[in-house]
Amino acid sequence: MGSHFDQFEIVRLIPFHLFGNLDLSFTNSTLFMLFAVGFFYFLYLTNIKNSLIIPKKWQSIIELIYETIHSTVKDNVGTDGTKYFGFILTLFIFIATMNLFGLIPYTFSPTSHFAVTFGLSFSIFIGVLIIGIMKYKLNYLSMFMPAGAPLGLGPFLVLIEFISHFAKALSLGLRLAANITAGHLLFTILSVFTWNFLTAGGFIALGALLPFSIGLFITILEIAVAVIQAYVFCLLTIIYLGESLHLH
């Protein structure tokens, strides 16, 4: 009998090793990330490039996402942060698509792996750090010392701020992976319960109604979670970007 964690297994579809130890294999995770990129390109061709004056339902959804992300960037970063809007919008669609793909049976969600989400969050953190240093040079280090704090507590405050600042990269990726993994595990467990009741036969099969009903509710909830977690990831990215641009 397989484990509930089998759905998170990385499968090498095209094995490839460079210099013996460097694993550059094409995996199921890579495949679904490419699917997410392809889906974004599909949205561009069907909604952005060929947009209609009177939008249809699908275009209305895309415009709602566009306006929501744009207002979030403008409200948290200001007008000088709107130049990063394209990146944030792409990031949201990319993460939301990968999250939603994982809800389809026999597929794979790359965001359920911390290696993927941490790679995203760490890359974003480094980028935000570079933006702040390029704008403020050495004055960027002033964000590690709270204004008005006693000078004697400076070393301790700097250490605490330094740790909390770099912990953002860890927490940003960990939050996304943990939520996606937990939801998928719960959905799998309920599906197994439903199947076991159905295969038992007789009156016992009626017991499948309870886990099936809960599973249906969880499916709807997970669709919402997939989108919300993508938004939260982007919202925190915007906040970190605003802190670097304005030294909050």
Tell me what the structure shows.
- The structure is a single chain.
- The chain is mainly alpha-helical and 248 residues long.
- The chain has one domain (23-246).
- The protein has helices at residues 28-48, 57-77, 85-101, 114-136, 154-200, 209-246, and strands at 12-14, 17-18, 22-23, 26-27.
- The strands form two sheets. Strands 1-4 form a two-stranded antiparallel sheet. It has a two-stranded antiparallel sheet with strand order 2-3.
- Strand 2 (17-18) and strand 3 (22-23) form a beta hairpin.
- Helix 2 (57-77) crosses helix 3, helix 4 (114-136) runs antiparallel to helix 5 and helix 4 runs parallel beside helix 6.
What's a concise summary of this model?
The chain has helices at 28-48, 57-77, 85-101, 114-136, 154-200, 209-246; strands at 12-14, 17-18, 22-23, 26-27. It is mainly alpha-helical and 248 residues long. It has one domain (23-246).
